[in-house]
Structure formats: structure tokens, C-alpha cells
Amino acid sequence: MLVGYGLTECSPVVSVNRISNYKVNSCGEILSCCKVRINSERKTLPGEVLVKGSNVMAGYYLNVDETNKVFEDGWFRTGDIGHINCLS
């Protein structure tokens, strides 16, 4: 079993641990099809996970208001809290 992170709006995977490069307490490497950033005052602190990429939906079907709530400058606001660490 491998740990990863994703949600339906991101088709559904954003990152995944790999057998060849597994890090405990991590959601793994970010997939090459997407970019992830943390919306935080300081990059070292947890903040909201924002995702952009070809795997991210264009919007909620026939629901412009909800779509506008979850996108900010092209970044999908997941509503999840996290931080980015380096795999080594």
C-alpha cells in the first residue's frame, strides 16, 4: 500500500509515495502534470494546498458561482491544509 494525496477535482491524484522513494508521514512526490503551492504567510508553516495543472478540472458543471469560489488566479483551492517537504 502506498500513500498519496488527491481529490476528485484533481482527477484524482496530486502526489503519491513511490516504492523507490518512500517517505514516512508524507503524501509523496507531486506528479509531473501539476504544480502545488501552499497559501501561507510563511512558506515554512502549513497553509491551504493550491493545485494547478492538466489534471485539475475546468469547473463545476453548470455551476459558475461554486467554480469561482474554488479558483484563485488559476489555482484550485483545495480547502486542505498542508506543507511541502523535500524527499531525499
Judged by helices, strands and strand pairing, the structural class is mainly beta
Determine Rg (CA atoms, Å). 14 Å
Kindly identify the CATH topology: Luciferase, domain 3
Q: How many E strands? A: 7
How many structural domains?
A: 1
Overall geometry comes to: globular
CATH class membership:
Mainly Beta
Give the terminus-to-terminus CA distance. 20 Å
Roughly what percent helix? Answer: under 10%
CATH architecture: Roll
**H/E series:** EEEEEHEE
**What's the total helix number?**
1
Physical arrangement of strands within the biggest beta sheet: 4-5-7-6
Q: Which sheet architecture does the biggest sheet show?
A: 4 strands, antiparallel
CATH superfamily: Luciferase, Domain 3
Q: Mean pLDDT score, rounded?
A: 91
Residue windows where pLDDT falls under 50 for at least 5 positions: none
Strand content: 35-45%
What does this structure look like?
With 88 residues, this protein is mainly beta. It has one domain: Roll (Luciferase, domain 3). It is 8% helix and 36% strand. The strands form two sheets. The chain has a four-stranded antiparallel sheet. A three-stranded antiparallel sheet has the order 1-2-3, with no helix packed on it. The mean pLDDT is 91.
Features:
88 residues, mainly beta, Luciferase, domain 3, four-stranded antiparallel sheet, three-stranded antiparallel sheet, 8% helix
Topology:
Layout: E1 4-6, E2 13-16, E3 29-30, E4 34-39, E5 47-53, H1 64-70, E6 71-72, E7 75-82
Write a brief caption for the model:
The protein has 88 residues and is mainly beta. Helix content is 8%, strand content 36%.
